[in-house]
Amino acid sequence: MKVQIENTGPFEKKIFFEIPREVVSQEVESTYKSLNRNVKLKGFRPGKVPRSILERYYKAQVESEVITKLIEDSYGKAVEENNLFPVAPPAVLDRAFEPGKDFTYTVTVEVKPEIAVEGYLGLEVEKPAVTVTDEEVEARLKALQETHAQIKPLEADRPVQEKDLVVVDFEGSLGGKPLEDWKVKDHLVEVGSQTLVGGLDRQLVGLPLRQNRDLRLALPDDYPRKELAGKEIAVRVQVKELKEKILPALDDEFAKEVGDFQNLPELKDRLRKNLEEQKEAQATQAAREKLLDLLREKHSFGIPKSLIERQAENIMARTEMRLARQGVKLDAANLDNQKLRESLMPAAEKEVRGTLILEKVAEKEKITVSDEEMNQKLEQLAVQLNQRVEQVKNYYQKKDRLEDLRAMMREEKTLDFLLGRAKIKEGGSPPEEGK
Q1: Class of the 254-426 domain?
Q2: pTM metric for this prediction
Q3: Who has the most CB within 10 Å: 158, 313, 368, 419?
Q4: pLDDT tens-digit map of 117-136
């Protein structure tokens, strides 16, 4: 096989192929033999159909299969032997196929840019200082107390008050027409907590029990459903029950109940340690991001548009998943997908640039991810997702994403390698809890 590669642009290669007639003939013969074993034609036993009959009915199909096979095999071999890194499928420009003759074809393909990385060791990176205050520990303890509160019916027949827990039904409408997703029954909410859209829970103050009331509600300008954003809707509400929250006492018994702790001070120590570990992880991630920003600033190079577009699609997929966890569908939000994709291009370009730099650093420093490290990561994911390791591994295999996971781990490992050799300067704003 003859292969000739020509540079036609900063990220584009044109590859000329010439495959000998002997190889072409062998592939044609092999395809016809396979067809003969499987084809069913009236009047002939399997494997006994004359070649002339097969050619009469299946010549176009066979030639199409042979061309596809020859291109796949020769293109894959050329990419591997010439250390090319395509970022998109090749485009076949022309091909000349005729049985008994050499097969020639030409493709163009976008490849990763050839970049050189330097000056990536010993960078000065600011890492936020990690401090945990007594107030933060008390807030975490209070949150834990809230999660262990008991909720009981409140034997009272009075209007709703601020801080009450209520069970409420409500139904929204616009112009007299019911709104989709605005019919809710038996919803438990704390009055005044501002957890219902448009501050609906604040309007519950003063309402009587078990009576329908009609309210007006102004939806926010950033409401996910574009056709409703900023509009005023009608909401029919009924407060069905009053409930009260009974908080457990913060004492040694509470500490024993929530975990393997001997007393309340021991529980507080664990909460403080958890906060420190969380903030340290956040500070390390902030330092990683600053380090990566420095590397981007130091390395300027062009990037194939197809890479950036693909990354924009990945960001859109992540956004869709995040909205789905919040109960919002991207389609229901009536967003202009094209405009959204275009708005994501700068962020996508930034992510791709960082990935290419880290790939090159990992290559130079011989940083790899072993199978053992992959298995450990899969075990961690299984614990986080509360699934068996086999389930998690099967998911990544079915989605053909095991190598994506390995690449992500390699990036993280490379960043940690660079951070370990950076000049760390502690300072800046400490990470906020929960961020």
Answers
A1: mainly alpha
A2: 0.73
A3: 419
A4: 999 999 999 999 999 999 99
